[in-house]
Design goal:
Helix content is 38%, strand content 15%. The protein is built from ten helices and nine strands. A five-stranded parallel beta sheet has the order 2-3-1-4-5, sandwiched between helices. A four-stranded parallel beta sheet has the order 7-8-6-9, sandwiched between helices. The longest helix has 21 residues. The two termini are 42 Å apart.
């Protein structure tokens, strides 16, 4: 048995839960591909034993590999409040325990169960909608407690895998995972955004015929947006606020922080500002991911393209 430093922090524990049919199994597989040790459908009574085996003070260097544990309403003796209590206790013991909740809109879940002809685990003799409503009620405490929520309503399997990779591939113990995301309000607010900034007050390149086909990554669009008299002061205030808040989020133990920059369609202004904000944050010494949710493609009447809609690629199974 290895003799590790008893005061060394334990390897991160990620509890993966969520709605049946939302993509939890896909998320676990993606986490495994990104270096996590994965255990699924673990009874709560065995969680403490698993942590004891995985604890660095007992198993040495192998426990540096982060652990993802899948648990949901089908787990034997499942009780969301009890799970939350377990998480609190683990954090008090110094275990870096986080919760990832995979969510999805009820209508989309009904469609998935209908297409796969699977019965909802909480409604074996009733319509899937009844089971979904019951499960949402049962899972509510965990949904509120989650450190990060991924909503797969409009996701394909590939979208979910990409999102998991972006959020967890560079996972480091004790570090804050930063994401700067551009998006279009026409496609809805990002469901996992912690801070949202609206760039619709800036001059819109969409109305310039020569700029409309371009994106915020193109130099001509950048010059146009930056030439707006309101840009410099607004950007300085926004970036200053973000940089002043990041240390506070880290101090409070937040694992993931998503800063969302929006414009009408998510193709021009938000992309340019997100890129500039990412540069500023990196210059301050932080590592981050940058995601342009709505940059590629076009949509009639707005300057942005389609979000990753469900019919773009393999659908998430129920």
């Amino acid at each position: 048995m290895a003799n590790a430093d008893p005061d060394a922090p334990r390897a991160p524990l990620l509890l993966v839960t969520g709605m049946s049919g939302a993509g939890r199994s896909t998320a676990l597989k993606a986490l495994e591909d990104n270096g996590f040790e994965v255990v699924d459908n673990l009874p709560l009574s065995l969680l403490k034993r698993l942590l004891a085996v995985h604890d660095k003070t007992l198993t040495g260097s192998d426990s540096d590999r982060p652990l993802a544990v899948g648990i949901d309403a089908r787990t034997h003796a499942f009780d969301a409040e009890s799970v939350v209590s377990h998480i609190k206790t683990m954090r008090e013991r110094g275990i870096d325990a986080r919760v990832l909740f995979i969510d999805c809109a009820g209508g989309e879940l009904v469609r998935r169960f209908s297409e796969t002809r699977r019965r909802h685990p909480l409604a074996l003799d009733r319509p899937a909608a009844d089971g979904i409503a019951r499960e949402r009620e049962v899972m509510a405490p965990l949904r509120r407690w989650a450190d990060i929520v991924i909503d797969t309503t409009d996701f394909s399997v590939h979208d979910l895998r990409r999102t998991i990779r972006e959020k967890f591939a560079r996972h480091r113990r004790g570090e804050l995972t930063l994401t700067v995301m551009s998006f279009g309000f026409a496609r809805g607010l990002p469901r996992d955004a912690d801070m949202v900034f609206d760039m619709r007050f800036l001059a819109n390149p969409h109305w310039q015929p020569n700029l409309r086909p371009l994106t915020g990554k193109d130099e001509a669009v950048g010059r146009y947006v930056a030439s707006d008299p309101a840009y410099v002061d607004a950007f300085e205030r926004m970036s200053g606020l973000v940089l002043s808040l990041i240390p506070s989020y880290r101090r409070e133990g937040k694992a993931y922080l998503t800063i969302a920059i929006g414009c009408t369609g998510g193709r021009h202004r938000s992309v340019f500002v997100a890129e500039r904000l990412a540069e500023t944050i990196r210059a301050a010494g932080y590592t981050l991911n940058i995601v342009h949710r709505d940059m590629s493609g076009h949509s009639e009447g707005v300057e942005a393209e389609g979000f990753a809609l469900p019919d773009h690629g393999e659908r998430l199974p129920a």
